[in-house]
Amino acid sequence: MSEKHPAIVDVSADTFELEVVNRSHEVPVIVDFWAEWCGPCRTLGPVLERLTQEYDGQFILAKANVDKLPEAARQFRVMSIPSVFAVRDGQIRDSFVGVISEREIRAFIDRVLPSQADLCITEARKLEATDLAGAEAKYQEAVSLAGKESGPTLALARFLLSQDRFENCKALLDGLQKRGYLEPEAEKLKAELTVRTGGQGAGSLEHARQQAAAAPADLHAQFRLAEALAAAHEHAEALQVALSLVERDRAGVGEEARKLMLALFQVLPPESPLVAEFRRKLSFAL
């Protein structure tokens, strides 16, 4: 009996999280939900195993016996078997049910394998801790390989933002905006850029506080305080100051304050109580 290829693993209830979810952050994982009593599974399984050997480590084939893994099957909403799922970065990227042709299986595998641009991004992220110039070069290489795909451009923009290279980051986002839309990830990045760069004009938080305290009637000074608070991650106070400006001067500085609030709603987690609270308050103020 030939030895099983190292890219083929039998998962248990104890190892499923490690071998499927965690490992998918390093390499794509294809999960085959099967059972010993399932005739179609006995047809599909050997084909998947043979292709796993052929692709030789480009993905992991995780064999999941539904009789031993009922909870995992429920989590993946397995209704019938065989059911096959492709997992990358902890997320299900594609799936199919039943026996399909080898040509279709190959196409399924090829769809979920990382592209050359994806591999460059992975390498760039590893380099960020030790070689910033090398990381940027890899991100640039990913962009050049990606064609019209926006993911590498967003990865480079996020890297530039982390290095406080705001103008370079903005140029990339402006380029994407010319298409007439931005993906949710790009909108979030644009909001982070807005918050970070707004704080620059406000100066230090302590200085902004002093200026606002000295001139409570100066709404522009109050807005600079809101920007400084946002840049310093004092989100609750920033939202409160911005909301008061919307209420006091809706058509003037309040409009900028409203935009700042919307940017903070993008930056904060969607489930944040602050987002729910201040969305409601802003809606009432408008």
Would you mind describing this structure in some detail?
With 286 residues, the chain is α/β, with parallel strands linked by helices. It has three domains: 105 residues, 3-Layer(aba) Sandwich (Glutaredoxin), CATH 3.40.30.10; 67 residues, Serine Threonine Protein Phosphatase 5, Tetratricopeptide repeat (Alpha Horseshoe); 85 residues, Serine Threonine Protein Phosphatase 5, Tetratricopeptide repeat, CATH 1.25.40. It contains 14 helices and five strands. The longest helix has 19 residues. The model has no long low-confidence stretch (mean pLDDT 91).
What can be said about this structure in brief?
The protein has 286 residues and is an alpha/beta fold.
Write the layout of secondary structure elements.
Layout: E1 8-10, H1 16-22, E2 29-34, H2 39-55, E3 60-65, H3 70-75, E4 83-88, E5 91-97, H4 102-112, H5 116-127, H6 132-146, H7 151-162, H8 166-177, H9 184-202, H10 205-214, H11 219-231, H12 235-248, H13 253-267, H14 273-285
Parallel strand pairs: 1-3, 2-3
Antiparallel strand pairs: 2-4, 4-5
Helix pairs in contact: 5-6, 6-7, 7-8, 7-9, 8-9, 9-11, 9-13, 10-11, 11-12, 11-13, 12-13, 12-14, 13-14
